[in-house]
Design goal:
The chain contains 10 helices and 10 strands. It is α/β, with parallel strands linked by helices. Bound molecules: adenosine-5'-diphosphate and magnesium ion (MG).
């Protein structure tokens, strides 16, 4: 496509994340097949679908853990598919992990200081003299996730919901523009789930982040997502705002079963 044609087709504002025709097979299994969607700044997009639908594979194609067979991933209009995970992180893609990846023997504050040191290119081996560095920045990040009061506690002592909030602070240390959260509320109680996603929404709005998340709890999805993309067997079978997706008969048949959308 020529330069002129491609720019004339652009929307008034290029999406933060553009996923275009993404495909990836493992042997004979087409895990992700021609998947396209956009995430805009300030928006939370939920990728949902049954087990094996291709959600985690999509995430890993976006964060660089996997390379696509076909298709493109663009951040602010710049191609990043095929780059190494660390380079994609440098382009502003942060992530939280399904199994939290904090250092449990260290304090809450130290975990965030370490993340800041890593982001600012400091070496692991210099960690000791860095103990006092990035302290103010770490405390500022911790107040954004309402964890400043627990800054000096070892992470091993924290409740699960609090660990997830520290993980958010660790992800924010990399100044992400896009946050990828694969099943962020797995293992959490109902109120904890909604508290974490309300916090995520607040951060999304305040910082004009884009958030892409997968989630099994449909109450969380329908309460907190701005847009939903439904995958089944690697293909997009529905997309739209929560009320549109809930009304799709295809989604009802393939995935939602008896679930009924409740008003926010
Ligand atoms: P979801 O996260 O929606 O549960 P996945 O993306 O993990 O789905 O998996 C999609 C499909 O790809 C499944 O059939 C799964 O078995 C297969 N798959 C995922 N990762 C691998 C892999 N590394 N090697 C082989 N098959 C894989
Ligand atoms: Mg998965």
């Amino acid at each position: 496509m020529s330069q002129a044609t491609s720019s004339s087709l652009q929307h008034h504002q290029t999406a933060l994340l553009q996923v275009q025709g993404l495909s990836r097979a493992f042997g004979g299994v087409q895990a992700v097949s021609n998947v396209s969607f956009d995430v805009h700044a300030g928006q939370m997009l939920a990728l949902i679908g049954p087990n094996g639908a291709g959600k985690s594979t999509c995430f890993n194609l976006i964060n660089g853990q996997l390379k696509p067979d076909h298709g493109r991933v663009l951040l602010h209009g710049r191609r990043v598919d095929g780059l190494a995970p660390r380079r994609i992180w440098r382009h502003g893609v942060g992530r939280t992990f399904q199994i939290p990846a904090l250092f449990l023997s260290m304090t809450v504050c130290e975990n965030v200081q370490l993340a800041l040191a890593s982001w600012h290119g400091r070496n692991w081996r210099l960690w000791r003299p860095l103990r006092s560095q990035f302290k103010e920045e770490a405390l500022a990040l911790l107040s954004r996730v309402d964890m400043a009061a627990q800054a000096n506690r070892p992470c091993a002592e924290l409740a699960y919901g609090d660990i997830k909030r520290v993980e958010l602070a660790v992800a924010l240390a990399g100044e992400p523009r896009l946050l990828l959260m694969d099943e962020p509320t797995a293992g959490m109680a109902r109120e904890e789930r909604h508290a974490l996603m309300s916090l995520t929404r607040k951060l999304t709005r305040e910082n004009q982040l884009g958030v892409l998340f997968t989630e099994h709890s449909l109450d969380v999805v329908f309460a907190h997502a701005d847009q939903i993309v439904v995958l089944a067997s690697g293909e997009v079978i529905a997309r739209g705002q929560p009320h549109e997706v809930a009304a799709s008969t295809e989604v009802q048949r393939v995935y939602l079963g008896g679930f009924r959308l409740e008003p926010r």
